[in-house]
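hey so i finally got around to running the thing on that chain from the lab meeting. sorry it took forever, my laptop kept dying and i had to restart like 3 times. anyway pasting the input first so we r on the same page abt which one it is
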Amino acid sequence: MMSKAFAFQLRQSKDEDANSRPKVAIKDRFDTSTIIDIGRRPYQQDAMVANFTSGDDVGIGVLADGMGGHLGGEVASNIAASAAFAEIKTQLISCKLDDEGIANALNNAIDRANDVIGTYVENDAQLRGMGTTLVVMLTIGPNLYWASVGDSPLYLCRGGKVQRLNQDHSMAPQIDAMVASGMMDEADGKSHPQRNELTSAVCGRAIAHRDCPKTSTQLQAGDILILSSDGLQTISDLEIGAIAHRKRRSDSADIAGSLMKAVLGANVEEQDNVSIMVVKINADDPAAEVPERRDAPLLTSTSGQAAAKMGDPDIEDASDLLNKALLL
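ok and heres what got predicted. didnt touch it at all, straight out
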């Protein structure tokens, strides 16, 4: 069941299963969809916000994958995604839309989310130890920017090839380096118990590592961006790229659904939560003039039982942040 605080924001038909069907956001320059699944976990700790409005050249994608127990991870991801989205919307009003200004805005969004989580941890003993990964993705025309903390991947699929764009702040890169150097067997590396341990997270304390390039990545018509929680990595990067390439002429909802089908079809016993955002780049040229009335952004939360409790104050706080951001 999804969080009461976010569910009313979703644009879906009454008979649509909110946890298994992709939601198509827009067309124009961007074709965007999200899809989520709880996997085989007892609760959901992922949260996403997708804001790609019709006729606009600016798009925002935010994804957070929480940790810290049932309640903690759920609250951390919702609060971080909401705070980061609200902050980047605020920053875009006044920041310079050059590389330096946008990088500063993205870093401020990460810092704001971290500060808000720190306040919650300080005021509620039940939430101590909670934290989350966080990726804030911003597209302005053909320019892609991001800031990320943790191991949630951002992929670019182009011409049949897939490339992970953001850094992986987990033990996986170090373990893979040991495998490459012959210090560890490949099988041992893939199943290493510390492989998924984070080396950096948004948890209310100093952030050890963050990835925020100082320049943009140039997008082209036909590019496919995939932002996800690490639950997608049940399938290999090679398979992710192959699915995106095979479905390149389909819409974003079909791509997202095919990726999810492949993950769940792997039938992994302890499959993690899976959250996927797919953004297809439809055109290189500027989008049409922005209409006076913009479509509502696609807001997706995948909260589980704790957040579904009526009147959960922490999740309602997250909803308030989103509602204020929508007025900007």
